[in-house]
């Protein structure tokens, strides 16, 4: 029921690190830290000194030492380290790569269903709504907030322990080849591709390349859920040949969809989505009317059908969905203005530390 306890020597072997000093004690590790300002307790805590274009975690080692931290993952040694008795330093070439390698190893110890979510929009809301819908039956671990970056994903996966029955992690990228790293860490068994939009277009040759890069998260899933009405997404999925190695559960208006959407009826505060599944007419009602919420809800609907939830149970739970605070949250302003509060939409760890 507790988080796996590692030893510093075990971690050194996993991340291929040199240990300094040579006669260093073998310390226990349960928590990892990448931001010195977020230290809660120094006991069994290991600090990764990450380097960014604007800052370096190596600058904060002495301060953390004064607060009781004794284990550090570094990419270079400082002569002042000799003045920190009782400390253990694990030296690697790249501390971010070491963080990702360690958490990928941690993920390998757990044989549970893992839902991996990516796309230009909707990742966090789909994750949180699935947590609302499935949390009644399962003990679920999920990414905190919008932790979906090269740093946020490892920190999310590190939370895995043996009390959880299902994991839901989101993954976002801004450059080519980043998803390859996140796939090794998350190792999803079920994939959800929410949609494709213009976010981070500047770092990709075109939309097709961006879709292809995001699909790298799903190369080893059992099933991929997606909306086949998104033609560019459908086209790249077919051309990528990923369908040769994985199964899909698609939804949309086409006859061949697993969940065929027939029509959507919108009232003042609700939307009822009608479809066909398994040759039967089915429907859900959600307490939202905007198109983004409808799309997100259908992804959740498809996921629950895939997990073999009875349609009757899904119908009962969907109206109970609640908005995600500070996530595309609409508030009334003065002078007939509307304020959209999207402060939730930030993986703090994706910012330069």
Mean pLDDT: 92
- How many angstroms does the end-to-end distance come to? 32 Å
Number of domains: 2
How do the helices and strands follow one another from N- to C-terminus?
EHEEEEHEEHEHEHEHEHEHEEEEHHEE
Class by helix and strand content? Answer: alpha/beta
Q: State the CATH topology of the largest domain.
A: UDP-N-acetylmuramoyl-L-alanine:D-glutamate ligase
Q: Got a strand count? A: 18
User: What would CATH call the architecture of the largest domain?
Assistant: 3-Layer(aba) Sandwich
Strand order of the largest sheet: 9-10-8-11-12-13-14-15-16
Describe the sheet with the most strands. 9 strands, mixed
Count of helix runs? 10
Query: Could you estimate the helical fraction of the residues in percent?
Result: 25-40%
Quick one: CATH superfamily of the largest domain?
Mur-like, catalytic domain
Q: Which CATH C-level class of the largest domain is it? A: Alpha Beta
> How large is the share of residues in beta strands?
15-25%
Indicate the low-confidence ranges by residue numbers: 343-353
How large, in whole angstroms, is the Cα Rg? 22 Å
Q: Identify the overall geometry.
A: elongated
